[in-house]
Design brief:
Layout (H helix, E strand, L loop, with lengths): L1 H21 L6 H5 L20 H4 L4 H6 L4 H19 L5 H25 L14 H27 L3 H20 L2 H21 L1 H25 L9 H6 L1
Helix pairs in contact: 1-5, 5-9
Length: about 250
């Protein structure tokens, strides 16, 4: 087991080294030379003006420690467990109902054997262990899931009535992209890919933060440059109409 955990940690380190070698280490000069105050490195040291550390952005608790691989044994075990569950359902073509029924059968056989062994050994049935899930568990799960769903629905409605065409278009494109991805993969695979991304991208960004920031700023600069070319060559030539004459009429 210890060997498998070390192997998973070494694989992550090798992945980090490979990606870091592919990330350009040059500074994003063009974007900052344009004098854009919103993305100037003089005004913000981190991407999008972030001042806190990556660990603090993720809450600074045990969840942040898990996502940022503070304990490689725990993080690698969680990632390996998620991979095992995904492979169990996706590759071996098992179904959730089948797994639940088989688990219940195994539990019944174990308790049946324990009960008969207890009667043979003259033990009381009260000593037989019983599995009882606390009610608070279901309440906490329902409250957490319901809060996230309501927050998402509230965000969607705020965007729909907010009269911000840019934000509205971005959200619609994001939902269309999610629908397209959902047509390629099933829900389990999408959840697994998101889980793997959540357990690899943050630690990659934390370890090579400066290189990623420079790369993203360079990318923003290229997008800004292409938009200016498009605006000067095409968008600015679109007739907008004479508003003054319409008001006078």
């Amino acid at each position: 087991m210890h060997h498998k955990e070390n192997t998973a940690g070494n694989m992550l380190d090798n992945l980090i080294e490979t990606i870091s070698d592919a990330v350009p280490k040059n500074k994003a000069g063009k974007f900052f030379e344009d004098g854009n105050p919103a993305f100037s490195r003089n005004n913000m040291d981190k991407l999008f003006g972030r001042q806190n550390s990556v660990h603090q952005v993720f809450g600074g608790g045990k969840s942040a420690d898990l996502l940022l691989w503070r304990n490689k044994k725990i993080s690698s075990s969680v990632l390996a467990g998620a991979t095992l569950i995904w492979a169990f359902f996706e590759w071996l073509d098992y179904h959730l109902l089948s797994i639940l029924c088989l688990a219940l059968i195994v539990g019944m056989v174990v308790q049946f054997s324990w009960s008969n062994a207890s009667s043979i050994m003259n033990r009381s049935q009260s000593e037989i262990p019983r599995l009882v899930l606390p009610k608070e568990l279901f309440v906490n799960v329902a409250v957490s899931v319901g809060g996230q769903v309501n927050q998402f629905l509230g965000f969607i409605q705020d965007v729909a009535i907010g009269r911000d065409l840019k934000q509205f278009a971005m959200v619609v494109l994001g939902l269309l992209a999610a629908a397209l991805i959902g047509s390629w993969f099933n829900l389990l695979t999408v959840i697994y890919v998101g889980f793997v991304a959540a357990h690899t991208l943050p630690v990659l960004y934390e370890k090579y933060e400066d290189q990623v920031d420079d790369f993203m700023y360079s990318l923003f600069g290229q997008i800004q440059s292409q938009y200016r070319k498009l605006d000067s060559g095409l968008l600015s030539k679109i007739p907008k109409g004479n508003l003054k004459s319409k008001k006078a009429d």
